[in-house]
Write a structure and sequence with these properties.
By secondary structure, the chain is an alpha+beta fold. Belongs to the diacylglycerol/lipid kinase family.
């Protein structure tokens, strides 16, 4: 038998994964996997999840949760140097990484992907710092960027992605563009922006086409930034974003690089925080780089 660690978040999405836990274990056992369970806790590192890693040889780790849970698991795997494939059961609110990898949202579909044993190596983003922080999908800052981790859990559980959009709308009237310097290996851009996203995947906050040009296994990050357009132009731009035709828009900055630095050009702003895979990240300035095909994932 093979051994799997299943790390599940009981409150991700609409909190219903635990109802399927027994079925999930039954299916994994029927595929020849023994399953060791770990339940996540609020605001806690997952260090205890692999307390037995020295004694047992795991063949893979499965996450059941949203992007925040996947992010925590990946950071843990990096810290302990765990080189095993990651399976994803999308049980979160927006499940942006699963969308990018076309992993089905329904449990049977996600388990079928694991059953196929088709493993793909994907890139991993890193925010450099005293303690490195990895991201698998996106690192973002500005308008809407902090909505995912600032939205109340009960609101998310009840309204799903709609909770993000409603919360985001309340930011529009008060948000001011920020002057940024964006440096890549190839270029330096100085611009007032409303929002920037550094994509490894391509979907953010349920906007599946936002990072449309990004590939998760090309050794590059994609920067998308929205220039300081007046708010009355935002609806038209949003429509383009939904259609995936925004990349060439004059109000969008898009570039690809394996190194992206983002700094504030206004010293009076000292609290500009980024969001990493839907979780709270560090303050600007940040330096992002990418590790080519660093993580193995069960994919369709
Ligand atoms: N047992 C728990 N009780 C309350 N909160 C928890 C628990 N376990 C984890 N969390 C919190 O859940 C958050 C991660 O949620 P996750 O991102 O997986 O789901 P989501 O926000 O519904 O989905 P998505 O990120 O895809 O939109 C973390 O901030 C973590 O602190």
């Amino acid at each position: 038998m093979k051994l799997l660690k299943l790390i599940y978040n009981p409150v991700s999405g609409n909190e219903d994964f635990t109802e399927s836990l027994d079925y999930c274990i039954q299916r994994l056992q029927s595929l020849g996997y023994l399953v060791s369970l770990y339940r996540t806790e609020k605001n806690q590192e997952l260090t205890k999840a692999f307390f037995d890693i020295e004694k047992l040889n795991y063949d893979g780790v499965i996450t059941a949760g949203g992007d925040g849970t996947i992010n925590k698991v990946i950071n843990l795997m990096k810290r302990y140097n765990l080189d095993m494939p990651l399976g994803i059961i999308p049980a979160g609110t927006s499940n942006d990484l699963a969308v990018h990898l076309t992993i089905p949202y329904n449990l049977d579909g996600a388990l079928d992907v694991i059953a196929k044993d088709n493993i793909k190596a994907v890139d991993l983003g890193e925010i450099k710092g005293d303690r490195e922080k990895f991201f698998i999908n996106v690192c973002a800052g500005g308008l809407f960027a902090n909505v995912a981790h600032q939205t109340d859990r009960r609101f998310k559980n009840a309204f799903g992605k709609l909770a993000y959009y409603l919360n985001g709308l309340t930011e529009i009237s008060t948000f001011e563009a920020v002057p940024l310097e964006i440096t890549t290996c190839e270029t330096v851009i100085k611009e007032e922006v409303l929002l920037f996203l550094i994509f490894n995947g391509s979907s953010a906050g349920g906007f599946n086409n936002l990072g449309k040009a990004a590939k998760i296994d090309d050794g590059l990050l994609d920067l998308i930034a929205v220039k300081n357009v007046s708010f009355n132009k935002l609806p038209a731009l949003l429509v383009k974003i939904l259609q995936g035709s925004h990349i060439q828009d004059e109000n969008i900055i898009h570039c690809k690089s394996d190194y992206i630095k983002v700094e504030l050009l206004d010293d009076s702003i000292d609290d500009f925080r980024v969001d990493i895979d839907g979780e709270e990240g560090p303050l600007l300035p940040i330096e992002a780089c990418v590790h080519f095909q660093e993580i193995k994932i069960f994919t369709p």
